[in-house]
Amino acid sequence: MRLSRYFLPTLKEAPSDAQIVSHQLMLRAGMIKQEAAGIYAWLPLGLRVLNRIEQIVREEQERAGAVELLMPTLQLADLWRESGRYDAYGPEMLRITDRHERELLYGPTNEEMVTDIFRGFVKSYKQLPLNLFHIQWKFRDERRPRFGVMRGREFLMKDAYSFDIDEASARKAYNRMFAAYLNTFARMGLKAVPMRADTGPIGGDLSHEFIVLADTGESQVFCDKRLVEMAPPGNDVDWNDLQSVFDERTALYAATEEMHDAGAFEAGTPEENRLTARGIEVGHIFYFGTKYSAPMKAKVAGPDGKDTEVHMGSYGVGVSRLLGAIIEASHDEGGIIWPDAVAPFDVVVINLRVSDEGVNAACEEAVAKLEASGKDVLYDDTDERPGGKFATADLIGVPWQLTIGPKGLADGVVELKRRATGEKQTVPLAQALEIIG
Ligand code: ATP
Ligand code: MG
Ligand code: MG
Ligand code: MG
């Protein structure tokens, strides 16, 4: 991608109403533009990162056995009347009326709709277990939309819904999502800690939030420090028996403010391991049994031929919120530092003198070779001054910066900089390409 033909509207300064660093940097890096309170246009650079995060979430859901579908954003109010949530949900729900005076809503979550799909097609326990997920825009008319994509009104969520014949099987489904979430966040370079959580308006009796520790987080959390450094379970696990993965983590204390029990925290956690911190909720999983299947009559024939209400769980990831969380965890004075797995581009090639044919040719050769090896390349072929080019490259946080100019070329070398460490190497192009990998 040539920067001269791209759309990267960077800002010298962040608007003063952006209070936290991730919001400031997303605006400055030309990733998003606010269209209304809590409603954003995703500009090309922001969209690239959003897509990469979405893809990691999708791959880990599929690995855990979940099946993707896509439900609409608009839902009928009558469906929500079946569960009793239409009136209960309150002002966070955006209610809409169509030309026929039919009551609709912009979905804040999809328990009712997925239960309706399930009951329409699944009639036997033999079709279970089943886990259906989608990655779709949600709308919640938040009282205080703020912090950019962190608390939007329109936001992208991955939500999965599991259906099982009984509680024992539903708990296995819960554990699969529990493990999948640990792997998902780790792939993005995040340390997300599962914490016992309140079930809120979704309801139910077993629930964990996945929390990324950050001073700007909106939740107060309490946990055993050892959980923060615990490695994810990885892919080499038995997806039908993840009880030990669950037990190992839930044996250590971790709770959000609503569930916190100071006495239990002090009794069960040595003082040097007690951590009281702020955190960002990036995921939330629930087991809620027959809360929706009972009123909505989602039943299957069991092995004995009798109809049984299915046991359900739901599992959310804040896909768009994750951009904010990753930036909060990974930035410096110069700008964003994207972990490789979610970076919008792998490499930026910086041309220091676009008026020089030799430099242009060397840059184009570098871009072609990088692209041939599968890299996403941003080629800064603009006529901006070198200082401005370096500042932009740092700001947008691309993991590798490959700088080519007339002086280096005369000596047969280029400069390679790793954004995360600032480490620079002056080496021949071939060697730089090898280092990038
Ligand atoms: P919060 O406590 O931040 O309001 P929630 O508990 O209401 O979130 P859930 O219903 O658990 O949210 O939704 C699943 C996930 O969706 C959350 O863990 C979070 O990552 C994301 N999410 C929820 N609300 C928003 C929002 N307004 N903007 C961006 N992401 C959100
Ligand atoms: Mg909320
Ligand atoms: Mg919450
Ligand atoms: Mg939640």
Automatic annotation (TrEMBL):
It is found in: Cytoplasm. One of its GO terms (cellular component) is cytosol. InterPro entries: aa-tRNA-synt_IIb, aa-tRNA-synth_II, aa-tRNA-synth_II/BPL/LPL, Anticodon-bd, Anticodon-bd_dom_sf, Pro-tRNA-ligase_IIa, Pro-tRNA-synth_IIa_bac-type, Pro-tRNA_synthetase. Keywords: Aminoacyl-tRNA synthetase, ATP-binding, Cytoplasm, Ligase, Nucleotide-binding, Protein biosynthesis. SUPFAM superfamilies: Class II aaRS ABD-related, Class II aaRS and biotin synthetases. It is an enzyme of class 6 (ligase). CDD domains: ProRS_anticodon_short, ProRS_core_prok. It catalyses: tRNA(Pro) + L-proline + ATP = L-prolyl-tRNA(Pro) + AMP + diphosphate. GO terms for biological process: prolyl-tRNA aminoacylation. It comes from the Bacteria. Its main location: cytoplasm. It holds the Pfam family HGTP_anticodon. One of its GO terms (molecular function) is proline-tRNA ligase activity. Its EC number is 6.1.1.15. Residues 38-339 form the Aminoacyl-transfer RNA synthetases class-II family profile domain. HAMAP family: Pro_tRNA_synth_type2. Homodimer. Belongs to the class-II aminoacyl-tRNA synthetase family. ProS type 2 subfamily. Catalyzes the attachment of proline to tRNA(Pro) in a two-step reaction: proline is first activated by ATP to form Pro-AMP and then transferred to the acceptor end of tRNA(Pro). This is Proline--tRNA ligase. It comes from Brevundimonas goettingensis.
